[in-house]
Amino acid sequence: MTGLVxxxxxxxxxxxxxxxxxxxxxxHSNYLNTMKDRYNDLLVTNLPEFxxxxxxxxxxxxxxxxxxxSLDKWLNARDDIKxxxxxxxxxxxxxxxxxxxxxxxAYKSISKDTKEWIKDQTVAWLNxxxxxLPM
Length: 135
Description:
The chain has helices at 18-22, 35-40, 47-51, 57-60, 64-76, 79-95, 100-109, 112-128. By secondary structure, it is an all-alpha fold. The protein is globular.
């Protein structure tokens, strides 16, 4: 699968929390607030500062990995997600490129029920863990 964080290399005299950063290895970059795009556009020049922003607090939460895995497991069993995945893989195999229109089409192919379920599960997780997340 493309877009997964496979490693992080950090060079600095400043210390960082290694255990926290280990949690993002294996995550899809979409969980990371489009970090790769922001980095490539030179909008992210300091990873520790980027990951200390409020949006990232859920990433470090003990239960976030469990939530992410249960979400992935459920989604991988959905026919609309399987279709979207295969469509994107076929496009990637044929052209070696995926453009914004491909992702817009992929999003449109996801059923309304799936989108609602994702939203409901995310809101439920946030509500359950709100005492541990600054909002």
